[in-house]
Structures are given as C-alpha cells and as structure tokens.
C-alpha cells in the first residue's frame, strides 16, 4: 500500500513540568504515510528530535488500539481529533491533507493538571471511582452467575455505559470541564444491574460529591462530551445520574453504623 | 541438577489435589494479617484481583503500576472472551473437559495439576465477575451467552462483545479501588519496578522509579507478587501495548528467579498485517471472528487479483481442508503456521504477507445486523486502521506476536525459586504449556489473583519466619546504588542510535529467526547478532534528557536493555529444545508441517538460572512433566 | 439536604424547577398578550382583570421574583465554578467538528441579556407612563396605548426582536435541558424531547415577536 506521503506543520504545546509555563513550538512532520496513525506520526517527529538531541514530545499512550484510554489531546480544538468515535491512537493520517497546520494541546482542566507537554494527570477519575464506583462483594461470596437473570436490554445498556475508557475527552471538550459524563456512566452501569442496586443511593451521593470536590464544573447539557467521546457514551447517562442522585437525597437514611466491617 | 525445582504438586487424585492442599494450609489469624504486608507489582487482571482479594483478607497491600491508572493495564485490550466450564449450553462441557482441552492445547507441556486447578477455578471466576458488575453478554431470557473459541468443540466462552478484557479488568479494578477506599490497598501509579530486593534469601521488597520525578524509592514487604504480564514486545511489533515489558520479571530473574520456557511464544493468527516501516504496533482481530469468518488463500500461486475477483473454486479454505473436524477453529499455533506456509508458498493475498478472513457466507446466512451485533467494534476497528470495509470485502490478516507462555518458573503455589516472590498471570509460565488456547489468558489471570494467591500467600506467611526489615537495610541501599549506576551508565553513553532503532533491530531478528518457525542455523545467527546488539546498545545508545525527570526515552531504554538479554535467552532455549511443540516450531522436527514432539527427551520444563552476568550463559534446569490423566499423544485437530 | 444544594447536580435541579415556573408564566403571558390582535378594549380589560385580583397578582409576583432570584443565583454560582474548573484557556476553543450548539454554550450570556430585558421591560410597561381609558364603564389603565406608542419606535422594536431571539435559544436549550437535569431523559425520547423543546420555544418566542412586529408594521 504505497501512497503519496504528506507533510504537516505542527504547533505543539511544550511544557517542561507542572510548575513552569508552557508555550507553543512549531515542528515539521515530513513524509508521513497516510496509513500511519497520528501517534506514529508523532513517533516520527520525535525520532527526529531525539537525533538532534532535543527532548521528544511527551504524550500518554499505551495500547494503541483505542481501548486503554491513555492517549488523548486536542487537535485543532477537537478532543482526539476530527473523527467521531475515535481515539487519537486510532486516528489515521489519511484524514489529513498535505500542508495542513495542526495545533496540539493537552487536555485543559483544573482537575487535570498538565504534567508535561501533552500529558496530564487524570488521577481525579481514579478518586471518583474509589469513592463508590464498585459493588461491595468480596472474593468468594458470589452465587452462580445465572442465578439472577438480567434482561438483555438492561445488560446491553449497562455494557454501553461500562464501555467508557476514562480517557477524559469529555472533560477536555466541555466548556465547564465537567466530569458528569464519566461519573454518570459508572453510576448508570452499576445501577442497571441487580447486583449494583443495593448500594445505588450511597454510590450516587458519594461519586457526585467526589466529582464536585475534584473541581470539575457543572453539566450544562451542551452535549459536546458525548459528541467527542471515542466510545459514544450517551448523554442519557447524565440524566440517569441526576435521577439517581435526587432519589438518593430524598430517600437517604441515617447510617446505623456497622458498615463494611473493615 | 533439578533438585531445586520442586514443583510441590500435592499428592492425591487430580480432582482433589487443590481441595486437600487448601485444607492442609496453615492460616494466618485475622489480627495478624494486619501486621503483614504484600507488594503487588502490576495491576492488570492478575494483579488487581490479587490486590483486591488480599486486601479483603486484611493484609496491608501496596499495589504498583507503570500506568497513570490501573484501568490502563493491557488486560484491557483482550477482546474475545473468557473460558469457564459452566456447561450452561448443555453441550457436554465439564471441568475435566476444559482441563483436557487445555493440556492438549498446550501440546503436553503444562503441568496437569495446575491446569486442573485452573479449570476448577474457571467456574467461580464467572460468578465473581458477574457479582462485581461485569456486564457479560446475555440472551433474551436474561441468562449468560456463550461463543466458541479455537481448540474446543464446546461453546464455553463468556464475552462482552469484543471488549471482554476491558470489562473484566474494570471489574477487578473496581474491586481493588474499593479496597483503596477502605484503606487496605495503597495504590502507587506511574512507578516502575526496577529491581527486587532479597534479604536473607527471601524476597522482601522492591525498588521503583517514580516515572514523574525520576526518584528511586524503596518499598518493604513480607511478600512480593509479580503480575507484570508477558514479553511479546521483544519482537518490537506485537499486539502488546507500548509499555508492556519484561523488566520486572527480568530483574527478578537476575536476582535468582528461574526463567522457564522462554521460547514458548504465541503468534496469534488473526492480526491486521504490517503496513509500513514506521508502524509502532500490531492490532489483533479477535479469534472469536473465526466463529463466523472463513480463512482462505488464493489457490493459484502469485495471484494478484482482488479477493472479490477470485471465484469460489480458486479459493483454498485451507483450515477447513486440512482440519475438517475443527475447521476454522483450529488452535492458534496451528492456524498461524498454516498461514505462514501459504504465504511462504506464494499464496499470499495480493502477493502480500496476508491471508483472507471472509464473512461473506455468514453475512448471507445471518444477516449483516447479527454480524454487527457480534463483532461490530472489531469491524469498525479494522475499517479505521485499513480504510477497508470488512462487511464488503474480506479482512486481510496475518499472524503476529501476541502472548508468551514462558515466564518466571513457579511451583504449584505460584512461588518462584526465590522464597516470598510469587508470580501470577502471564508473567509466570505455569498453565498453558507450549501453546495457549483462546480465552484462557483472562481465565488464568483471574484464577491466580482471585483464587490461588490469597491462599498460597497466606500459607507462606504462616510458615515463614519473617524478621523485621526496613529500607535502611544494606540490601536495599546496595540495590538502589546499583540501579542508579546502571541508569547513569545508560544515559551517559550519548551515542548515535535511538532506543527505538535498536528495539526495531532486535524485533526483526527475533521475528525472523525465533518467530513462527525456527532452525538451528538461524538461532545461532540470532544469538550472535543479539550479542552484538547488546554491545551496540551499551556503546551507542542515545538518550536525551536526564535521569531526574520524566524521561520517556530513558524508560524505553531500560526496557529494551532487558529485552535484548531476554531475546538471547529465548534463542538459546529454542536452540536447546530439539523438538517442535505448540508455538515452538523447529523446522528440523516436523511431519508434514505438523509439530513433532520428542517426549523421550523433552517432556520437561526448561528453567534457566542467571549466572551473574549477561556474558555468562544461563544454566538450564529441568522439571520433568508427568501425564497421569491426559495421555501423551500426538495432538491432532484433523 | 444542604449537600444537595451545594452539589452541582442539586443546583441544576433548582435551575430546572425555577426555569419551569418561568416557562409556564411566559407561555401564559404570551398567550394573553395575543389579545393585542383582537383590539384595544379586550387587551386593556385583560390587563385590568389581572391587576384587580390582588391575591393572584401578588402571589404570582412573589413566586416569579423568588424563582428568578434562585435561578439567577444558581446560574451565577455555577458559572463561577465552571470558570474556575478550567484554569488555563485553550488556544483553539473546542468548536470544530465535535462542537456543541451555540445556544447551549452561551446560556449565561443569553441569561444576562434576558435579565436586563426583564428589568427594562418592567420599567417600560409596568412602571411606565399611565394612560387611562374607559372600557364598558370601568376606568382602567390604557396599556394598549402604551404598547402601540412604544412599539412605534424602531429602536425599541429592534431591541425586542434581538432579546426575543435570545429568549428563543435560551428556551430551546433550557426546555430540553430540564429533562436532562431531572433525569427523565431516556435514549428513545431524546430526539422527540429536543424537538418538543424547539416547538415550545418557537411558539413562545414567535408569539411574542409577532406583537411588536405587528404593531410596528400595521398599526398606524
């Protein structure tokens, strides 16, 4: 598959560490194969930088098949680039044309401080998960997997919410840097399943509280999160979160102690 | 010679070994568990499930990962499914059949006792996963759905579309995060283990490098668990993620942990073919596709026509032709080898290194919607990468390195040759023999983490005198110093070769000489070449930046240095094993393109002992394998 | 309960509920004002009937003022929080291929303009010039005359048109968003609700727009 290669101009955000100010630096990406992925294009640029003794552009990446959620930055104002339902590692250069100028910026959100260049710290997501994104079941306590039938539509819907890869594109593209889509996807996934219903109230309260505490903004239903989500997580998740939250506030019971036993 | 290799397989009949063994284990009382600490390195399926389960039991657990979050571990990318002997389909499955299939699938190079335990645990894994919220696929009646996978004639694979690994990982991850919330597990992210610390002959801690600051940190514990995955990235191009490395396991090897069967690597038959020089990784197309896709190559040599122009009678559905009873669901090693033969004989798709995987007939039979429901995300991924629509034209596929059956040697308790060092998941060698069947990796990772380690780690702690050790101990200081020295040496080479260029060169040698087929001359050449490459690395590598900052090139360089040493050992292992079995195919030992085992000479595990320096070849030890239940026979899928 | 009002989700509920109150009010307001097409007497009699029922009048006014205060203060506090959630700006704001509707992104701007409009609107009419007229023997305020006078000025009409178009966008997004905030948005209903919100917004804004334009063009 030999096709004509393309040349691009990249304006890349370079920032040495969280403490220093960053700035844009312009690089040429030359002789890029249209079959290469966006990250492979950056690899090529980096190879050139290293040869010159410069420090390579740092970006998070790992699986390079669109599932680990590591990669992600803004390309000309689009989270993960212009293609829908695509992570930047699965974005191929055939979608760009020769001579194009691209601006690459890290996710920007107070809750996602930049670590270096295009890499930022998304550990806020882990703390939201830790606050309640689980079902309290110890190993060895499970009954037979088929003991509770789950209607297929519920299982399918739960799966669609669970497909979130936690890349942060929703936060990055939201004008309020809101983490509502991420948080609601987990709340929805677990509240749809019979196993997760027991703790649904407390989960909604805790996860929303943690989401707010991390400094994310509020959802104003612009829908841009869902539009830039590489896994097409639906906006309806946020509605579910709101409903779960209200229900929990109304029906909240005083904790009687005892708790988790640990 | 093999005195040291005591597999500690309990006596008794195969189906009661584990039960009896669990009963005989010593227990640690709940109040004492709090006083004991466990380090878990790696937070994929095996690591996260182990950390969660050990935390639940009350141990003080410290979990480490190189990623920004445990959710990024490469288990996330497993697509097709997870096996379990539930027999929900009433098609004759049983624990014994899963055991039998796995032993046979591994070409009689795995331990019967381990495999049986794995098959037993498989049943509980599905229960555990569902209880922790994993949305596995269901039928309209609300019950779990199954699909078929290679090497089995029953339908026992549970799945969540093409994202089974992702969903199972998130299940284990969330269980672990619950323990983090409860304070039993301390999570350490973006930290890479750079060495194991051994005190008085026991594993007592690790040294990690904080990837954000470059600082080295010492961590002490009573037990160290490695769940750091496989080493397919030795081939540079593989389906593994970029950060997958052998480093943690290799450092443990250099500290005295034997490395078993390094030459057993799995080349997965259905990957998207290589497209160019700058490619960074290969993408797998799940084996589950072979449920509905038919594999073929053009019958005519050098046929350059487009697939749609090749009439039915000029297509060679070679898997169906050669293996009528398993057809397209032949095991991976067999399917890969046959694809290579077709291409080598000049039957490649449009003259390239690829064969076809065709869904035309299934789409006709089931309709495009059904196919989309089953494999939608995989088809979309293929389309994205190749810009070809697999609903309209057949996929082009070719084998690629995917999984490594070899790994650190462990006994039945998953403990390595260093007391206190346990190894779980792909990082150990234990359950798959010379070839792994599809949908078994997820099963093994979770079996080790959820159902084996919580018992065996406790037994070790209860039976072992563990003195007070802290980070000011000489062993910690010395280890830290030696790491510092190695990093400085590496970064001060300031040569001309980039890390990637060296890695690519290593990968090419490994793929050509120690890949899908191997021969004596090639392996000897490879050993030579890799020895040279090691020198090149230490004399000419170019790493920009310093050691005291986030330095991605330095990270990669450390990993490549270990891959180089491992690559040499893999070739040596492949050279010594003068037989063909599973994924290890020696051209000298074959019958009509099928692997020819030599059970008289090689019915054993080869475990290599480090001799103190990369210049001194490792010593080979063996552990004899006995087959009391599944009788040694030539493996046939015809 | 306090945590509810502190949380982003809780404040969105409050904005939704108060928005809903206003949505009902302005619909009624728009419908009533349509009497301008019927004639001066009908229009004035309608206005007189409303101000004569003091309980209804003050009840409604208090409810409207309170809900407006809640709506605006939630909006302000959320906007402040939303601004601080992104401490460094993008060089290229996300507005390209994966952007969102302008209406949804500029709710705060629209809201501020509409608030200004409401205040001016009250000054012009409620507290504006008082003409008197006699309808069927009852002496009452001649609002009709005031309206005709006001809408004869092109500047005024232009300002109204601009504000009402802003209102159109504010309502179209707000009406849809309420279902989202209240958590009654189901996947299947999403498209229909969005359309419903637009229909409502168009009816309200269209109705209001028709009045000044009609007066300006045809009422000489």
Name some characteristics of this structure.
heterotrimer, A: 262 residues, alpha+beta, Ubiquitin-like (UB roll), 5-stranded mixed sheet, two-stranded antiparallel ribbon, elongated, disordered C terminus, C: 220 residues, 3 helical TM bundles of succinate and fumarate reductases, 2 strands, globular
Give the gist of this structure:
Chain B is α+β, with helices and mostly antiparallel strands and 638 residues long. Chain B is built from 17 helices and 23 strands. Among the domains of chain B are: 268-399, Succinate dehydrogenase/fumarate reductase flavoprotein, catalytic domain (Flavocytochrome C3, Chain A, domain 1); 481-624, Up-down Bundle (Methane Monooxygenase Hydroxylase, Chain G, domain 1), CATH 1.20.58.
Largest sheet descriptor of chain A: 5 strands, mixed
Q: Into which percent range does the helicity of residues of chain C fall?
A: over 70%
Uncertain runs of chain C are none
Strand order of the largest sheet of chain A: 2-1-5-3-4
Would you identify the CATH architecture of chain C?
Up-down Bundle
Total strand count of chain A, please? 7
Share of β-strand residues of chain A: 5-15%
The count of helical stretches of chain A stands at 9
- % residues in beta strands of chain C: under 5%
Identify the most extensive interface between protein chains: A-B, 80 and 86 residues
Overall spatial form of chain C: globular
Explain what the structure shows.
The complex is a heterotrimer of chains A (262), B (638) and C (220). A five-stranded mixed β-sheet of chain A has the order 2-1-5-3-4. Chain A has nine helices and seven strands; from the N terminus they run E-E-H-E-E-E-E-E-H-H-H-H-H-H-H-H. Chain A has helices at residues 38-51, 123-130, 152-162, 169-173, 180-192, 194-197, 200-213, 224-228, 236-251, and strands at residues 6-14, 23-32, 74-75, 78-79, 101-105, 114-116, 119-120. In chain A, strand 6 and strand 7 form a beta hairpin. Chain A has two domains: 6-116, Ubiquitin-like (UB roll) (Roll); 123-138 and 146-251, Orthogonal Bundle (Fumarate Reductase Iron-sulfur Protein, Chain B, domain 2), CATH 1.10.1060. By secondary structure, chain B is α+β, with helices and mostly antiparallel strands. Among the domains of chain B are: 268-399, Succinate dehydrogenase/fumarate reductase flavoprotein, catalytic domain (Flavocytochrome C3, Chain A, domain 1, Alpha-Beta Complex), CATH 3.90.700; 481-624, Fumarate reductase/succinate dehydrogenase flavoprotein-like, C-terminal domain (Methane Monooxygenase Hydroxylase, Chain G, domain 1, Up-down Bundle). In chain B, 37% of the residues lie in helices and 16% in strands. Chain B contains 17 helices and 23 strands. In chain B, 62% of the residues are buried. The model of chain B has no long low-confidence stretch (mean pLDDT 96). Chain C has one domain (8-83, 106-218): Up-down Bundle (3 helical TM bundles of succinate and fumarate reductases), CATH 1.20.1300.10. Chain C is 75% helix and 4% strand. The mean pLDDT of chain C is 91. The chains are: A alpha+beta (262), B alpha+beta (638), C mainly alpha (220). Chains A and B meet through helix 1, helix 2 and helix 3 of A and helix 3, helix 5, helix 6, helix 11 and helix 12 of B.
């Amino acid at each position: 598959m030999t096709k004509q290669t393309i040349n691009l101009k990249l304006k890349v955000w370079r920032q040495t560490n969280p403490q220093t100010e960053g700035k844009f630096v312009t690089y040429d990406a030359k002789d890029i194969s249209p079959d290469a992925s966006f990250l492979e294009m950056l690899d090529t640029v980096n190879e050139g930088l290293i040869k010159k003794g410069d420090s390579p552009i740092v970006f998070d990446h790992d699986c390079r098949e669109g599932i680990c959620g590591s990669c992600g930055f803004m390309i000309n104002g689009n989270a993960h680039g212009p293609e829908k339902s695509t992570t930047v590692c699965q974005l191929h250069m055939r979608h760009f044309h020769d001579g194009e100028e691209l601006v690459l910026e890290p996710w920007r959100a107070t809750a996602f401080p930049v670590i270096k260049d295009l890499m930022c710290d998304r550990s806020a997501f882990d703390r939201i998960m830790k606050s309640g994104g689980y079902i309290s079941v110890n190993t060895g306590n499970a009954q037979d997997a088929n003991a509770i039938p789950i209607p297929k539509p519920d299982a399918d819907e739960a799966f669609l919410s669970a497909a979130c890869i936690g890349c942060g594109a929703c936060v990055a593209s939201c004008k309020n840097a809101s983490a509502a889509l991420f948080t609601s996807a987990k709340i929805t996934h677990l509240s749809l399943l019979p196993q997760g219903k027991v703790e649904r109230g407390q989960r909604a309260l805790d996860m929303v509280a943690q989401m707010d505490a991390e400094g994310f903004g509020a959802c104003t239903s612009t829908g841009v999160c869902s539009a830039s989500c590489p896994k097409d997580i639906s906006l309806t998740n946020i509605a579910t979160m709101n409903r779960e939250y209200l229900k929990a506030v109304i029906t909240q019971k005083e904790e009687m102690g005892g708790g988790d036993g640990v | 010679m093999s005195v040291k290799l005591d597999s500690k397989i309990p006596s008794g009949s195969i189906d009661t070994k584990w039960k009896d063994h669990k009963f005989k284990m010593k227990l640690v009382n709940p109040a004492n568990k709090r006083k004991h600490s466990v380090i878990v390195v790696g937070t994929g399926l095996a690591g996260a499930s182990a950390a969660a389960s050990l935390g639940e039991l009350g141990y003080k657990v410290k979990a480490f990962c190189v990623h920004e979050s445990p959710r990024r571990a490469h288990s996330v990318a497993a697509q097709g499914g997870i096996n379990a002997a539930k027999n929900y389909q009433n098609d004759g499955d049983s624990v014994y059949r899963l055991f039998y299939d796995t032993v046979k699938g591994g070409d009689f190079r795995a331990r019967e006792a381990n495999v049986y335990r794995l098959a037993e645990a498989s049943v509980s894994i599905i229960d555990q996963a569902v209880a922790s919220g994993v949305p596995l696929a269901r039928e309209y009646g609300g019950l779990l759905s199954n699909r078929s996978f290679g090497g089995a004639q029953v339908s026992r694979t549970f799945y969540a579309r093409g994202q089974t690994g992702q969903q199972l990982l998130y299940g284990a991850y969330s269980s672990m995060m619950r323990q983090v919330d409860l304070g039993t597990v301390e999570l350490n992210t973006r930290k890479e283990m750079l060495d194991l610390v051994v005190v008085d002959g026991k594993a007592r801690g690790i040294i990690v490098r904080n990837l954000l600051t470059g600082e080295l940190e010492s961590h002490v514990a009573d037990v160290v668990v490695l769940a750091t995955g496989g080493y397919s990235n030795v081939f540079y191009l593989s389906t593994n993620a970029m950060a997958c490395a052998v480093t943690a396991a290799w450092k443990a090897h250099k500290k005295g942990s034997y490395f078993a069967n390094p030459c057993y690597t799995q080349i997965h038959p259905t990957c998207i073919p290589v497209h160019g020089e700058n490619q960074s990784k290969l993408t797998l197309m799940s084996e589950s596709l072979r449920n509905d896709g038919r594999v073929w190559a053009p019958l005519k040599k050098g046929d350059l026509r487009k697939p749609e122009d090749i009439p039915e009678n000029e297509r060679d559905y070679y898997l169906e032709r050669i293996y009528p009873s398993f057809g397209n669901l032949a095991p991976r090693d067999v399917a890969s080898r046959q694809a290579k033969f077709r291409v080598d004989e000049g039957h490649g798709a449009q003259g390239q290194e690829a064969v076809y995987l065709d869904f035309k007939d299934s789409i006709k039979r089931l309709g495009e919607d059904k196919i989309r429901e089953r494999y939608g995300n995989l088809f979309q991924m293929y389309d994205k990468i190749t810009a070809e629509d697999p609903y309209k034209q057949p996929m082009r596929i070719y084998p690629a390195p995917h999984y490594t059956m070899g790994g650190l040697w462990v006994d039945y308790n998953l403990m390595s040759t260093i007391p206190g060092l346990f190894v779980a998941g792909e990082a150990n060698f234990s359950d798959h023999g010379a070839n792994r069947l599809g949908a078994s990796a997820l099963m093994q990772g979770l079996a080790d983490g959820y159902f084996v380690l919580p018992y065996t780690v406790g037994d070790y702690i209860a039976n072992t005198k563990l003195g007070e050790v802290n980070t000011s101990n000489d062993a910690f200081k010395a280890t830290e110093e030696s790491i510092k020295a190695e990093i400085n040496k590496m970064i001060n080479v300031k040569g001309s070769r980039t890390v990637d260029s060296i890695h690519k060169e290593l990968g090419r040698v490994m793929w050509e000489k120690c890949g899908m087929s191997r021969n004596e001359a090639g392996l000897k050449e490879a050993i030579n070449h890799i020895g040279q490459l090691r020198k090149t690395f230490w004399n000419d590598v170019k790493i920009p930046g310093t050691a005291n900052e986030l330095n991605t090139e330095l990270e990669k360089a450390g990993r490549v240095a270990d891959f180089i040493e491992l690559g040499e050992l893999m070739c040596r292992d492949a050279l010594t094993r003068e037989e063909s079995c599973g994924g290890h195919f020696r051209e000298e030992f074959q019958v009509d393109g099928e692997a020819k085992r030599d059970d008289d000479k090689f019915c054993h595990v080869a475990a290599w002992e480090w001799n103190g320096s990369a210049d001194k070849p490792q010593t080979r030890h063996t552990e004899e394998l006995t087959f009391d239940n599944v009788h040694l026979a030539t493996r046939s899928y015809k | 309960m306090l945590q509810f009002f502190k949380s982003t989700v809780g404040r969105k509920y409050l904005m939704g509920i108060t928005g809903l109150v206003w949505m009902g009010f302005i619909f009624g307001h728009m419908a009533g004002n349509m009497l301008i097409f019927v004639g001066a007497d009908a229009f004035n009699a309608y206005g007189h009937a409303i101000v004569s029922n003091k309980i209804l009048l003050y009840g409604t006014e208090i409810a409207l003022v309170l809900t407006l205060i809640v709506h605006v203060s939630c909006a302000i506090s959320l906007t402040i929080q939303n601004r601080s959630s992104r401490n460094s700006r993008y060089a290229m704001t996300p507005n390209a291929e994966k952007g969102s509707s302008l209406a949804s992104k500029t709710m705060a701007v629209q809201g501020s303009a509409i608030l200004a409009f409401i205040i001016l609107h009250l000054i012009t009419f409620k507290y504006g010039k008082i003409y008197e007229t006699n309808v069927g023997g009852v002496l009452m305020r001649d609002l009709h005359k005031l309206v005709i006078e006001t809408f004869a000025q092109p500047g005024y009409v232009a300002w109204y048109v601009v504000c009402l178009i802003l209102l159109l966008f504010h309502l179209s997004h707000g009406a849809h968003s309420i279902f989202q905030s209240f958590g009654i948005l189901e996947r299947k209903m999403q498209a229909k609700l969005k359309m419903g919100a637009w229909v409502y917004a168009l009816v309200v804004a269209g109705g209001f727009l028709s009045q000044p334009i009609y007066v300006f063009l045809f009422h000489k």
